[in-house]
Write a structure and sequence with these properties.
Layout (H helix, E strand, L loop, with lengths): L1 H27 L2 H29 L21 H22 L5 H21 L28 H12 L3 H20 L5 H21 L17 H11 L1
Helix pairs in contact: 2-4, 3-5, 3-6, 4-5, 4-7, 5-6, 5-7
């Protein structure tokens, strides 16, 4: 009996791994995956380029305006930037675990394209609206390699991307974990002066707008969407179609 149970468990594990591999094969054959990948790489590249541009302006003697803030001006300062970096990365890891655990691979291209759009928008806006960092901001404690080039604050990429991931993840338990990480990130950003409050609120608004746009106009990036011609190649969809036919 024990041997049979072990064999069944082993068979289920092998079947699960096989399904995951087949799902990734479908994703890697999809043009939407590569469009999404290019989008997010372009978004990060534009953010970095925009920050270098602003740093160049500062080195030439230009001054970026430092703003007063209704919320930050009434909060004490604590050097806890390490906390918002840790919980931001934790939120991303949680999404990776979610993909594997819930086998939500077919929506990876949609995740990529929407996050890419968010960072492309941010890269444009931090140059269009070049605020200086809030007073007392000392930079990230985790990413020391970027110390000195952390300029450009509007909107917040930390809060915007985490809120976007929160909207896109379907499982309620994973959503709660990501929401908890987002709350810690927002609180620690305020106390460490990582962003103005307008950056934080705008990041959330931008993320929701991009999510709503994606839900309406970018459904083809969801490979599990029945309106997507590529979904007929997906093993989950093929299986459901075969069951329906029988």
């Amino acid at each position: 009996m024990i041997i049979n149970q072990n064999n069944k468990s082993k068979s289920r594990f092998i079947l699960s791994v096989s399904e995951s591999v087949n799902s990734f094969k479908i994703i890697l054959r999809s043009k939407y995956f590569y469009i999404g990948l290019i989008s997010i790489l372009a978004g990060y590249g534009l953010n970095f380029t925009s920050q270098i541009y602003l740093l160049h302006c500062i080195n030439e003697g230009k001054t970026l305006p430092v703003l007063s803030d209704l919320i930050l001006d009434r909060l004490p300062y604590y050097d806890i930037s390490l906390i918002y970096d840790i919980f931001y990365l934790t939120g991303i890891v949680v999404v990776l675990i979610y993909w594997v655990h819930k086998k939500d691979y077919e929506r990876i291209p949609l995740f990529l394209i929407l996050c890419g759009i968010l960072f492309l928008v941010r890269g444009f806006f931090i140059v269009l609206t070049p605020f200086g960092n809030p007073p007392m901001f000392r930079g990230s404690n985790m990413f020391k390699a970027f110390e000195g080039i952390e300029v450009g604050v509007y909107p917040s990429g930390h809060t915007g991307s985490l809120f976007l991931l929160f909207l896109m993840v379907k499982d309620k338990w994973y959503k709660q974990i990501i929401l908890f990480c987002l709350c810690i990130v927002i609180i620690s950003l305020c106390f460490s002066r990582g962003h103005y409050s307008i950056d934080i609120f705008s990041g959330i608004i931008f993320a929701y707008a991009i999510y709503a746009f994606g839900e309406k106009h970018l459904k083809m990036f969801d490979l599990g969407n029945r309106n997507n011609p590529e979904d007929l190649k997906h093993p989950k969809i093929m299986g459901s179609l075969l069951i329906a036919e029988n």
